[in-house]
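Hi, here's the filled form for the chain we discussed.

Project: internal
Contact: R.S.
Residues: 400
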Amino acid sequence: MSTAPALGAETYDVVVAGGGPAGCAAALTLALSGRTVLLADAGTGPPKTGETLVPAGRVLLGDLGVADRVLRSGHLPCYGNLSAWGSAELRAVDFINDPHGHGWHLDRRLFDRRLRDASRAAGAEVAEGTAVRKVVRQAGRGWTLALRGGTDPAEGGAGDVRTVCCRWVVDATGRAAAIAVRCGARRRALDRLTAVHACLEADPRDTDRRSLVESDEDGWWYTAPQPCGRRLVAYFTDTDLPAAPYTARHFPRRMSATRHVSRWARRHAPGPASAPPTAPRRAAAHTAHLDRVYGDGWIAAGDAAVAFDPVSSQGVLTALYTGMNAGRAVDARLSRVNRDDVSALADYAHKTAAAWTAYLRGHCLIHAQEARWLHRPFWTRRLTGLPDSSLRPQERRSTP
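And the returned structure, exactly as it came back:
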């Protein structure tokens, strides 16, 4: 579809859709390179909780020049991981020997806000509460985008419509990959993993700063302290298995039946039948990727490009990595005298594919370590390889 640019529309080199770690990393990289950038952050959806940044995240944030600014306070240090995986016994992996130090249990609202502030300080325009609602590609002349925002979504306002033009668009809209899909890219989901999660009330006696993973016959449990003082407890299983709705309905009972997670939970909610302060919620956690991560004037980063199973602990790290590399690729592409030269984009696709391949290899190795429930569907699916052979082809391409 091709139309003439809107008269009087503001023009940017790049519009970044999505104000999470991937979008901010891209906007920062481009702004520091002297590009005019608009970062549109829709700010919709429930806030993410329970996110952990592994120690290597400090390196990427340092490359972006924001490590001290983003990590200086407000997050909890993560000193290691505990796991009962492949065995009922609890094993520990400490970060004391990690050359980058400890990790962090993130306050994601604070983390993302500081990244957006850093993008603004670097020269990017940051439009809070603003979503990219319509994209129109003009052959040889870039994009015209309709942005909707200007009012607080929590107040129910529809917001104002703003039209802008740009040469490139970065899709950092998360698992939806909203712009890439509109441009013809195909989303491929490899499983149906979902998280059923709740936060338990704060308990000053809880001073353990490690995360804990405990597998069971239909999935696995995760718990970690939160910067607010509460403790997150989450159960991961496939949406089509009975364990998903049953856990959502009987969360306290299922939690109290665990061998290890229940010990941490009881500090916050005494008694086996105590309910969390809020009803459990669900969140998508499936493995997915795009069949192509860039196209004519667009590039995808973060979960929009590759979305990993949380057991990998690589979500935020990969978002920063792909966002920074996407920004570099677009900057290099805009600098090319020869418009047909796509080497920078091809290099980005290669790096993203390499990260995806490494993730899949690690994903298989991790699940192969759990051999106690080979007869159960959750584990059978993962031990016989991905994509899940029980999914029809069209289901593999769609988000569960």
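Let me know if anything looks off before we file it.
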